[in-house]
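Z., the sequence and structure:
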Amino acid sequence: MKSHMQSNATLYTHPPCLDPGEMVVLLVNELTFPCRVHQTNTNRAVIVPDKETPELETAISKLPIEAQVKRANGELKKISIDSAISTKAMVISVPSEPITVNRRDQIRYTCKFKVETTVDGKTWFPSLGVNISEGGMLACRPVITNMMIGQQIVCRVTLPDSSQFACRAIIKRLDPLQGGCNPGPPRMAVQFLGISLRDADKIVGFIFREQAKARMLEEKK
């Protein structure tokens, strides 16, 4: 089953809607599936089923769907299953009241990726990404004169898994030339503005898959 990521990345809950590592039971159409919460960083979570079964694949074959999760204390939460990476993992959203967003809580993944930036929508300047989350990224500064904090730009990003997206962004920080033990070019930290649901999940899905690969390699050692 192909991944069809479609979730939002702009609302936070406090305390978290679910706790990373906790065991829950997913209830879909009167079927139950034990799952582990992999990560929570907004009003969403990634949950990983204990087992991949044909029943689960059928249950999530048409997304998004409404469902419930049952916690160890018996609490039931209404959720929406927004997307799935086969039956290995599912991205769920938990309805909540919006509050102030702390974007630094979002999981940032360090890797190298291609970035193109434009100010006028005509000329694109290439650079290299350093780390990324669904809320923004840190990248080497492109060769654009008079860049300023608070300036709005448009970025085209190509992740290491070849998935691509483009969105508006605002410059939040401009770092000077890197020196000392970690020399490198000047950097810019940007916050994504109005990133689409599908594109936000491209980032979430990429990070999850890379973390899963790292865990598998660690377990083989």
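The first strand starts at residue 23 and ends at 28. The chain has two helices and twelve strands.

Let me know what you think.
H.
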